[in-house]
Amino acid sequence: MTEETLAPEAPIDFDITSSPIQSFTALQEARKAVFATGRSVDAFRRKVDALGDSGDQGLRRGVGAWMLGDYEQACRRLSEHASDDVASFTHANALMSLARYSAAKPIFERLSKKYPGEPKALGGYLEACLEEALQQKGEADTDGVLAAYEAEHAHANAEFDASAEGQYLAARTAELRRDWGAALMHFRRARELNAAMRKNLFHLAYRAERCGLDEEALTAYQELARLRPVDRPVMMNLGVLLEDLGRDQDAAACYDTIAKSFPTDRRARLYLSDAVAGMDMYYDEDMERKEDRLNQILRIPITDFELSVRARNCLNKMNIMTLGDLVKKTEAELLSYKNFGETSLNEIKEILGSKSLRLGMAREEAVMSIENAKQRYTTGENVEAMNRPIMDLELSIRARRTVEHLGCLTLGDITQHSEDELLGMPNFGVTSLTELKDKLAEFGLVLKSKK
Questions:
Q1: Of 148, 220, 133, residue with least CA distance to 184
Q2: Taking the mean position of all CA atoms in its chain, how far away is CA 351?
Q3: 391 is in which domain, residue-wise?
Q4: Which of 56, 123, 342, 345 ranks highest by number of CB atoms within 10 Å?
């Protein structure tokens, strides 16, 4: 084999049952054709499922599983073909998709030594080193992560650093140093060198969005959405961004795509409902405020509360993910479930009671209960403003969802959080923070000071 094993080559008419598996790049090109239509995906999946479990057919089945996004099966099958470099490289990429960086690292390391002039192999190894350090040390230990990465990066050369892979990693390390300008510069350069590098486009879109560059983020997300298969996080982020830009119909299309592909994704269905509601401009303003307060509470994930292991496991098995799911259940329904007893029931009732809710509560009753309990602040300065619902701020979709996720119902609840807490939330950047602070200032309120 030569370095063409990993290097780019022209697209081919690929048949998973018989075509030569010549390079990873050829597999990427063939993957685009597979996902051209729903019919082509189904036909390809049937061919993969019909392949045997061992030998050449087992290898092809593993490659086919990777192309379909079934990374678990790809890892199981391709691990048996370590002597085949394309299979190994595909295996390592599948491991990266599953965040198993320590397992991917030695595979990339072997390939980077065998193909010293191929940046994809060295880039995979260095990225695995970086992600492994982040997993083990955490982002709080920035110096430790960077030191671990730089020790391995010392073996790279100027040619690698100038490649798309090198520029992407330079951007990732710039982010760790909180040098956002340098990060954007390197992400953009990587895109110029390789416009189809998914991970670079995703990080570029995310960083641009956090820096308030919504149009640039939108372009990067749209470029990603044209690459097949489309990743769920890409479509979710694109939908949120489109809503912020007032394009509710386009946002709804993104969420609808996810909801159809992943029927159990509750978050996508909730966002789809919001986007569809945003297209209707006629509503009862007072009732909208009351419903909004209730929806904020019903969306709170069960994982936000301290529960015993038994209660949490039972709720997971019953597919109860949010307070909204829980309110729909009655005491009898919960107690009828195996291993769910009075102790777990009391835990649940206490959680709901803290939010002025109870099991089996009708929606109309829940609306009034929340409305009656909204006077949360009775002392201190500016009590009236503190008790106003967050809807009064008229925040953008992105900012509103962030404070909702934190469990905030009133302006006073928002002031219990600091800038750092908010900036640590997904999809909440400097632009959203500035918007929130300005809106609070109109009511004479400020965020919690950093201690």
A1: 220
A2: 27
A3: 383-442
A4: 123
CA distance 165 to 191: 10
User: 63 in helix, strand or coil?
Assistant: helix
Mean pLDDT for all residues in the chain = 82
Give the integer Cα–Cα distance in Å for 366 and 294. 7
HSE of 327 in the Cβ direction (CA atoms, 13 Å)?
A: 25
pLDDT digits 0-9 by tens, 20-66: 888 888 888 888 778 777 678 888 889 999 999 889 999 999 999 99
For the record, the structure tokens of 127 come out as 């990225």
Task: Find out whether 245 and 212 touch, Cβ atoms under 8 Å.
Answer: no
Residue 77 has pLDDT above 90, yes or no: yes
Is 407 found in the same domain as 361?
A: no
Asked, for residue 204, whether it belongs to a domain, the answer is no
Residue 301 shares a structural domain with residue 325: yes
- Res 281: pLDDT: 42
Amino acid (one-letter) located at 224: L
Window from 2-6, 333-337, 340-344, 390-394 with minimum mean pLDDT: 2-6
Distance CA 135, CA 142 (A): 12
Residue 23: count other Cβ atoms within 10 Å of its Cβ: 21
Name every residue whose Cβ is closer than 8 Å to that of residue 212 and which is 6 or more positions away in sequence. Answer: 429, 430, 431
Same domain, 303 and 331: yes
Q: What secondary structure does DSSP assign to 202-233, as a single string?
A: HHHHHHHHHTT-HHHHHHHHHHHHTSSSPPHH
Q: For residue 303, give the DSSP letter.
A: G
The pLDDT of residue 376 is 61
Phi, psi of 211 (to 5 degrees): -95, 10
> Does any domain span residue 364?
yes
For residue 446, the tally of other CB atoms under 10 A from its CB is: 11
Report whether 371 contacts 346 (CB < 8 A): no
